[in-house]
Specification:
mainly alpha; N-utilizing Substance Protein B Homolog, Chain A; 0% strand
Length: 141
């Protein structure tokens, strides 16, 4: 998988965080990974998975969910009038992912993290999502 495809898989997992209790997140990760058909190496939308990709996705998801409170505090500190509790779920998941990459993954340049979040916002968010995601992340850069 490409970095973008890996990131998209992590985003899809993070989207579900808002719909499950914290104690259910490991089970949700396991269920999500089961959707990959390891025999033919594709998930339900046709993206190729291998064991290395699955491990990367699971580990990144785990690391992000461990820091949700910390990440949300940073977001709430800059998102005037739009606390995390009011944000669209797709936008919030994308912002969380990008904040994690900006703060905890030194090998990913800040500009790349922001750009990737904006590109995914175009695909998964509303018409306003790309500019909203970009605006929040720019304040954190």
């Amino acid at each position: 998988m490409t970095r973008r495809e890996l990131r998209e898989q992590v985003f899809r997992l993070l989207f579900g965080v808002e719909f499950h209790e914290a104690g259910e997140l490991p089970e949700q990760l396991a269920l999500y990974c089961e959707t990959a058909d390891w025999d033919d190496g594709e998930d339900e939308i046709g993206r190729a998975w291998d064991a290395e990709d699955g491990a990367y996705i699971a580990e990144k998801y785990r690391r992000i969910t461990e820091r949700i409170e910390e990440i949300d505090a940073a977001i709430n500190g800059v998102a005037e009038g739009w606390k995390t509790s009011r944000m669209g779920k797709a936008d919030l998941a994308l912002i969380r992912l990008a904040v994690f990459e900006m703060r905890y993954e030194e090998e990913i340049p800040v500009g790349v993290a922001i750009n990737e979040a904006v590109e995914l916002a175009k695909k998964y968010g509303t018409d306003e999502s790309p500019s909203f995601v970009n605006g929040v992340l720019a304040k954190l850069a």
